[in-house]
Amino acid sequence: MHSTLGRRASICKELGWSLDFVEHGISYAKLQMMMMDMPRIVSRKKGEEHYTVTDDNAEELFGMLAARGNRMINR
Fold it and tell me: Of 6, 43, 48, 56, which is the most exposed, with the fewest CB atoms less than 10 Å away?
């Protein structure tokens, strides 16, 4: 994402909201804070796997995080 339009598109995709709601129904400052606070795994190594947390895999992924501790997040 390199622009505010890209950030808005990402918000629509991640949260399932319409562009009209993102632009007119909620403040952009609040959206920015929500996006900064959303859980994510940041990897710095090539070849690391990326995961999306869903209702079906949440328990398994959080178990993996607990087993690995903060090493997975703080690399």
Answer: 56
